[in-house]
Amino acid sequence: MKSLIRWSATLGLLGSTLLTSWFGQVPKALALPEAEVIKVLQGVPVFTITTEEGGPLIATLEDDQKVTQVFMSQEDANQFLAKLKANQPEIGNKVKVQPVSLGAVYSFALANNTETESLKFAYIPMASAVDSAKKVLSDNGQQYQGGVPLFTLRGGPDNSILTIQQDDKEVIPFFFEKAPIQAIAEQMKKDQPDIAETMQIEVIALENVIGLLQNKDDAMLKQIQLVPSQETMEFIQEAIKSQQNQGQ
């Protein structure tokens, strides 16, 4: 663990304060090229409700704002669809849960954010992650401000964000659940107790991370790695297994 753990001062701008640029309200001039932003987001499956034509299920609010939901949890998406079928079968029976990468959602957001019309995305976090985030923030004297919580560690000599050596490169991991980052913190208490005393788990909204990608010109941002929840990792493994079986 000693050789794997480092601290990145580059992401010092990340914190609990919400950035002004939220995902779904994408500025025209991106700090990182669109392809690089998509690359950071590509490895995370999310779940949408799609129509028979393959487009997203869109709700129109009272102010005529069009909104579509993006679920971090397949189970939550399935539960939403079950309620929709029960309460509005004329709609629910014509839509389905569709997995798609977060990178594809981002690309779709870019394409549907124009001066005349924009489609907003309501990102639905896992309830368990929100509960963990509220506890962490409360312990740090802060409050949950909404958004999809990501968990990381901050500490070390410069109170910096955790980085991890992965093969021949360093990555800056952000976890969709608290448990993995808690496990890293516990291991560091054994391996690097002096640094462990300075550490604390920190909650950062996914929307803030994407906002930073949109607004900050820094090559280090390419090292961000979003680590899906255990539920989503199991979905990925099942999808890979299914593809392998089809290939055979």
From TrEMBL:
Organism placement in taxonomy: Bacteria, Bacillati, Cyanobacteriota, Cyanophyceae, Oscillatoriophycideae
Protein name: Tic22-like protein
InterPro entries associated with the record: Tic22-like
Recorded superkingdom: Bacteria
Taxonomic source organism: Crocosphaera chwakensis CCY0110
GO biological process: protein transport
Annotated Pfam families: Tic22
